[in-house]
User: Fold this.
Amino acid sequence: MKILSVCGSPRKGNSEAVLLRLKQLLEKKGAENEIILLREKKIERCTGCVEYCNKNLDCHKKDDMVKIFEKIRSADGYVFITPNYFKMPTGIFKDFIDRCSIFYTAQTNMSGKRAIVITVGADVEREIDVCLRNVTDNFCKTLGIPVVAKKSFRSKSELKGNYNDIFENGLNPDIEKQLEKMADELFKSLKK
Ligand SMILES: Cc1cc2nc3c(=O)[nH]c(=O)nc-3n(C[C@H](O)[C@H](O)[C@H](O)COP(=O)(O)O)c2cc1C
Assistant:
């Protein structure tokens, strides 16, 4: 079972800490898990040249997305995580989303894949959920990827430079349990 995790934070922070913990949990169950840190990748912005992708069902930009497209195709499941920036995904995660439109254009059947979606933010969870819904309802649903678990986690790190406080500030006492549950849901849904 291959799980691909995609991290939308432009820094080494809470999102990455969550993905590292999930990686341990997924690997313990016997799954392969690769983490892609978008901030380390060269990903050009979608320039809307739809005549090309509509005709060729592919993107003509030859940057790091070429390999990422392949990894998306071959993975069974995904973990998508992005910080909440103004109730939206970060710019780099949005660039990733827009470039994934080739799966929509090519009508790629993603119905057998499964995803976990997580957002982190400084606000209360119901506010961060607006960003979460951007990813679940707008991105995953449009591409036809079923979401089996989703969660917003609160951090205190807004612009303060604490890079791992989602686990440490006491705001998420049950975070370990929640991550275990999400890893379970993903694993079970793919075993069926
Ligand atoms: C430009 C910017 C905008 C942000 N806007 C929001 C926001 O609207 N709501 C919120 O809850 N947190 C907001 N935050 C805080 C981040 O979501 C929060 O610090 C999060 O933990 C960052 O994730 P990371 O540690 O994985 O980078 C913002 C942070 C930045 C830098």
